[in-house]
Amino acid sequence: MAKKVLKFGGTSVGSIERIINAAKIIKREHEDGNSIIVIVSAMAGKTNELIDQSKAISKNFTRRELDVLLTSGEQVSSALLCGALNEIGVKSKSWMNWQIPIITEGENTNSRIININKEKINKFISDGGVAVIPGFQGVSINGDITSIGRGGSDATAVAVAKIFNADSCEIYTDVDGVYSSDPNKIPVAKKIDKISYEEMLELSSLGAKVMQSSAVQTAMIHDIPLEVKSTFTNRKGTKIFGQENIDYNKVITGVAYSKDEAKITLIGVQDKPGVAAEVFEPISKSQINIDMVIQNVSSDGKTTDLTFTIKREELDKTIDTIKNNKKIKFKELSFKKDVSKISIVGAGMVTTPGVTYKMFRALASENINILAISTSEIKISVIINDIDTLRAVKKLHSIFELD
Ligand code: ASP
Ligand code: MG
Known about the structure:
The protein has 403 residues and is of the alpha/beta class. It contains 12 helices and 18 strands.
């Protein structure tokens, strides 16, 4: 008998039929003799709808009230799912965050789970019941309702798997796993059977939005194996675990892209200690996320060029921040709006020489110009013109034998 955490995302509980379908999956797992804790998201679209309502009421809706509002979505889906389970003869019960309690720290709308009381739930599952826990919710030490960030039900599932020492943590969603590229745009993309946490993180931070990245990170730190699978098919999903469990027969595991990038270059910045910090400090204070940073070697020993990328929607704000920064001097600021980032990701590249060259050669053969490059141990990313995105992804996907 295994102890399983089963998490159902928003689309998996997006309608009454789907909730009934999820209940049937849970019943099957339960009848197989497993001890089950279920985590649910709000019904698809619900959280966004509640956010819109708060905005229609006030621009200054406080974060505290926002949490009271937003976490209600998970209350609804928890109760409906328990109803569906009870209806088909599976004894089940739901608890809200404060009843368990799921203790969090940090500010409203962006808290972190620090502890979960196991007592009631352990008692109920050892008596053969299915426990249902709302994802995304928490309660602060002061007793305020909190939430743990958008997409946070994944983080709840991982935290529950860890604290209850579960044997597995299965993430039920609307895709049947993680793909070697975006299956909607690249029809030859294949489902990946096994992937390491590191690769998954690289792929998901690059736009393959299957699971919340911080949840994968927590799973990695505590070595909790995950499985992403579809609620709507019976197919096997993608297993996510430590690299040592994977036999790499391919150099590259996936090709990811994100289209909404922009690139800024500061030409003729002073080349002395502290300048990069002066450039980036005000940008980070404006809550803008910097992605790639590339600094050229100084040719005259006095000045250098600094290139970095950001999300396209933050371009104007970033340029303003730089222009208002009195602490830095540069000759010229240039930027490019319509760029995208293409990355090849694979733990197999660590032991295989020539991957970088092969990638660049492939892009050259398609006449695609590379605007910037950055690499990590298991990833090579390039910035290219936006219009070349799909052509580049297709080429790389085929040249690295992922088709
Ligand atoms: N309902 C929350 C959201 O939409 C949490 C989740 O779905 O994971 O962000
Ligand atoms: Mg979600």
